[in-house]
Amino acid sequence: MTDLDSIKIQRSYKFRCYPGSVQRQQLAVEFGHARWVWNQCLAWRSNLYQDVGEKVTAIDFSRELTFLKQLGTYDWLKEASACVLQQKLRDQDTAFRNFFAGRAKYPKFKKKLHGQSIRYQLDQRIVANLYRAGEFLKLPKLGELKLKWSRKPLGIPKMVTITKDCTGHYFASFTCEESIQPLPQKPSGIGVDLGLKDVVVTSSGWKSGNPRYLLTYRRQLTKTQRRLSRRVKGSQRWHCQRMRVANAHARVRNTRQDWLHKLSTTLIGQAGFIAMEDLNVKGMMANRRLAKSISDVGMDELKRQLEYKAKWTGCEWVQVDRWAPTSKTCSTCGTVQETIPLSVREWTCQDCQTVHDRDINAAKNILALATLGRRESDVRGGVHKLEADYAC
Ligand SMILES: [Zn+2]
């Protein structure tokens, strides 16, 4: 494969970061001042718009900010690094642009108790002195930050975000433009059936199981939450307990995320194209009895991961129509059976006497549908949907 075949991608990295006590103090100042600037600017432009109908941007506020810094009373604004405050204002402009375009809700006031984040722009002219992958990251007014480099990024970031989540952990995250070589194209494909008993069942007969993380940690979660409700809100003990609740949630989230990443990577590596049902996760969530189990699996997240990993590796991801009768069609002779209740895991075809596992049979049908649709269009490294305009 030549170099021309490589794809440019934006890969995001997130590393745990361990600031020292002086750095933590400085970061608290940066977070606090940035939040103040955000909230002041938001109030200012909201009021101006409501009272006078005048639209202002964060650039106008930035001019005010320079003026304020010269006044004695707002002298403290100089404690934070200027680029962090500027970036916060630019982010607010983006938030408003998203709001006016109908992509997002009206920007909100920031609160300290929720996660905090600030962004630094890395000056590309001197970036070699500020950042070297796997070795160091230096930021204004903070100096060198201690990072846990769990992997080595290939590109050079333009922007670095420092966050402190509600468990009190710090993270540095950024995106790099990298070029990757797609995997050699494989002719084979696999069909994937999504479910709750096994999250993923493939047409080759492999079953992933369902770890049910929420269920596993439920006792711990309810226990910590019940304790929190007994504490006096705002007290020292309440704050400690709040941290424990956040930690418990983070553990569930992280283990689930880890599992999903391993699952999606395995699936993508297995075949040249992957066929999946176009599930309506939102619609399924409307079913209260199932909502908890579905959100515990993280099906939306699995789909998101498969989609971008397919693009990266040149694997094709095909979604077949969700109304196709995949679970009641015999994958051997193609006859459609009467509706099979969900409790029946195994059934025998009346016509050809084949014994089917419910999920593997569905996965096989999904694969067959996708192969049928693929003959008509030749797409690689992308996502496309198939409509049910064929007889099953
Ligand atoms: Zn049959």
TrEMBL record:
GO terms of molecular function: DNA binding; metal ion binding
Entry coiled-coil feature ranges: none
All copies of domain Cas12f1-like TNB, residue ranges: 301-366
Occurrences of domain Probable transposase IS891/IS1136/IS1341 (ranges): 178-287
Annotated ranges, domain Transposase putative helix-turn-helix: 10-50
Biological process terms in GO annotation: DNA recombination; transposition
Key word Zinc present: yes
Keywords per UniProt: DNA recombination, DNA-binding, Metal-binding, Transposition, Zinc
InterPro entries reported for this sequence: Cas12f1-like_TNB, RNA-guided_DNA_endo/Transpos, Transposase, Transposase_put_HTH
Cell inner membrane keyword on record: no
Family: In the C-terminal section; belongs to the transposase 35 family.
Full protein name: Transposase
Organism: Candidatus Nitrosoglobus terrae
